[in-house]
């Protein structure tokens, strides 16, 4: 069901499941919260609602839920009504000097967008995470996001497009984010590009190890979108203000 009130679109999604306890409603949007479903044979990681909430709030929307035990739950999503903007298009490009395996799909701006953009590179092997990041950066007309699913492709892209910032997953199919960072640091063309570590496992030791290796920041999955955007804005506005 949907309705429009005061220039806001409200969508309702209802189910007839077992319902949710009142004390669990306060934590349902927290990362990795599965409401004890890990004891059952129900697959999932517990980050879907967290990601949905961050994406919705990124466009000034809201998400909420009401529930009754034994009757089911109703989620609502409230979004501001606006005019559609041109979407980004995906184009296959050939990396200079790269072999067949180093081809990469780049998310390029449409013909109607401003071409005076900064480039951010995201190295991530998980397709869902790449798609999520693509949607996040679609809201930034001042940034062009390019992506790679392996460390080798990420390094090749960094050499090709020279991004202002690189987001690097720590666990990649062909090595670690630390391995890729070391190779970037060893090349004078990419040595000064700031690299942000992105990982699902973040402890104080991980953060310390990452900083010592040369990562400027260590972000936990699911990525806090507002924190990421603030970091990028900080770098774009004043590169000297980046954390040491």
UniProtKB/TrEMBL annotation:
The UniProt record lists the Response regulatory domain at 119-236
Q: Which UniProt keywords apply?
A: Kinase, Phosphoprotein, Transferase
**Entry's Gene Ontology cellular component terms:** plasma membrane
* Positions of the Histidine kinase domain: 1-83
Gene3D superfamilies, alphabetized: 3.40.50.2300, Histidine kinase-like ATPase, C-terminal domain
Q: Which Pfam families match?
A: HATPase_c, Response_reg
EC no. given is 2.7.13.3
Q: Which reaction does it catalyse?
A: ATP + protein L-histidine = ADP + protein N-phospho-L-histidine
> Would I find Endoplasmic reticulum among this entry's keywords?
no
Protein name in UniProt: histidine kinase
List, alphabetically, the SUPFAM superfamilies matched. ATPase domain of HSP90 chaperone/DNA topoisomerase II/histidine kinase, CheY-like
Q: Which PANTHER family match?
A: OSMOSENSING HISTIDINE PROTEIN KINASE SLN1 (PTHR43047:SF72), TWO-COMPONENT HISTIDINE PROTEIN KINASE (PTHR43047)
4-aspartylphosphate found at: 169
Entry keyword annotation includes Transferase: yes
Q: Which domain of life is it from?
A: Bacteria
- Give the GO molecular function terms: histidine phosphotransfer kinase activity; phosphorelay sensor kinase activity
Q: Which taxonomic lineage does the organism of this UniProt entry have?
A: Bacteria, Pseudomonadati, Pseudomonadota, Gammaproteobacteria, sulfur-oxidizing symbionts
Q: Which organism is it from?
A: Solemya velesiana gill symbiont
């Amino acid at each position: 069901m949907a309705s429009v009130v005061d220039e806001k679109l409200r969508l309702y999604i209802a189910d007839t499941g077992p319902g949710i306890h009142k004390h669990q409603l306060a934590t349902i949007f927290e990362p990795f919260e599965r409401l004890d479903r890990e004891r059952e044979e129900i697959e999932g990681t517990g980050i879907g609602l967290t990601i949905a909430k961050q994406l919705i709030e990124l466009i000034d929307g809201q998400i909420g839920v009401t529930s009754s035990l034994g009757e089911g739950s109703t989620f609502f999503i409230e979004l501001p009504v606006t005019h559609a903007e041109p979407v980004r298009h995906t184009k296959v490009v050939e990396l200079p000097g790269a072999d067949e395996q180093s081809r990469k799909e780049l998310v390029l701006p449409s013909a109607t967008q401003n071409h005076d953009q900064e480039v951010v590179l995201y190295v991530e092997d998980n397709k869902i995470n790449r798609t999520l990041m693509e949607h996040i950066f679609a809201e930034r007309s001042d940034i062009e996001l390019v992506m790679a699913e392996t460390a080798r492709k990420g390094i090749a892209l960094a050499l090709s497009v020279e991004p202002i910032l690189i987001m690097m997953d720590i666990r990649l199919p062909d090595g670690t984010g630390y391995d890729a960072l070391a190779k970037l640091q060893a090349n004078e063309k990419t040595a000064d590009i700031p690299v942000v570590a992105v990982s699902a496992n973040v402890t104080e030791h991980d953060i310390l190890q990452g900083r010592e290796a040369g990562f400027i920041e260590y972000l936990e999955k699911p990525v806090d979108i507002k924190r990421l955007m603030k970091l990028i804005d900080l770098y774009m506005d004043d590169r000297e203000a980046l954390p040491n």
